[in-house]
Amino acid sequence: MRIALVGYGKMGRMIKQSALCSSHEIAAIIDPFSDDADVTGKSLASLQSCDFDVVIDFSCPSSAYENILFYAEHGMSAVIGTTGWYSRLDEIKSRIDPNACSILYSGNFSIGVAMMMKTVAYISRLMDKVPSYDVCIEEVHHRAKADSPSGTAEMLKEIVLENIGRKKSTVYGNAEGRIGEDELQVASIRLGSVSGIHDVIFDSDADTIEIKHSARSRKGFADGAVKAASWIYGRKGFFSFDDFINDFLGV
Questions:
Q1: Rg of the chain over CA atoms, in angstroms?
Q2: Buried b / exposed e along 221-246 (16+ C-beta atoms within 10 A)
Q3: How far apart are CA 105 and CA 133, in angstroms?
Q4: DSSP single-letter state for residue 45
Q5: Rounded Cα distance, 54 and 19, in Å
Q6: Average pLDDT over residues 70-81
Q7: DSSP result, 126-195
Q8: What is the side-by-side strand order in the sheet with 102-105?
Q9: Which candidate, 102, 40, 110, 53, places its Cα nearest to that of 81?
Q10: d(C-alpha 60, C-alpha 46), whole Å
């Protein structure tokens, strides 16, 4: 499979290594801000004359919306790892033809995180029946992370809200005083070079249950993105990571 990379920061470099280790080829590397010798183009327009199978986009939130529309308009297959654009998800869905392109998006491509999410969904359904437990979400990332909260924390938030009926709304960041019993707090910490820690905490008077994922490096995210690219190749539609992981895990 021939892969075009859009965004050549730390994740882009890790994805390149993962792709090459899996015997794929790198057909192009697009990044308007990088002067790295590996970069083959500065704009998406250069992809139109490039022979590739799938784009993997880990660029920046400010360009994600327009990038996705570009891939869809030109009938490309694209894996979108950039976050910070989900408020426009419905708008994007209304503007693209899922029968003419292949778009797969996620806030996190780690297989381990995907399994954590399935665990959180299952436990949240149980906790819905036990009102003595409260719940919160905490995420920790490196200081340079552009968005807050993380895309993964947002995905975990949606899972909790969907499965625990008594939680109706979200409090982000530091709570100013008390929060309501129907509110779910999502806290973000930025620290050093942390690759990513996500913690869903269920607490009662009797005990505490934590579901936690700690990434040792970006390798897990890169490997998952390359696997997702292999899965989407040859398909048509607008997919979430859930579509891929359900098929991958056979659930």
A1: 19
A2: bbbbbbbbbbbbeeeeebbebebbbe
A3: 32
A4: G
A5: 12
A6: 96
A7: HHTT-TT-EEEEEEEE-TT--SSS-HHHHHHHHHHHHH-TT--EEEESS--S---TTEEEEEEEE-TT--
A8: 25-30, 2-6, 54-57, 77-80, 102-105, 237-240
A9: 110
A10: 18
pTM of this prediction?
A: 0.81
Q: Please work out, in degrees rounded to the nearest 5, the angle formed at the alpha carbon of residue 212 by the alpha carbons of 207 and 213.
A: 175
Q: Which active-site residues does the annotation give?
A: 141, 145
Instruction: Judge contact between 72 and 49, C-beta under 8 A.
Output: no
pLDDT tens by residue, 81-120: 998 898 999 999 999 999 999 999 998 899 999 999 999 9
Q: What's the confidence (pLDDT) of residue 107?
A: 84
What angle do helix axes 111-127 and 241-249 make, rounded to 10 degrees?
A: 90
SS3 label, residue 95: helix
Q: What is the Cα 91 distance to its own chain's centre?
A: 18
The enclosing H or E element of 213 equals strand 208-214
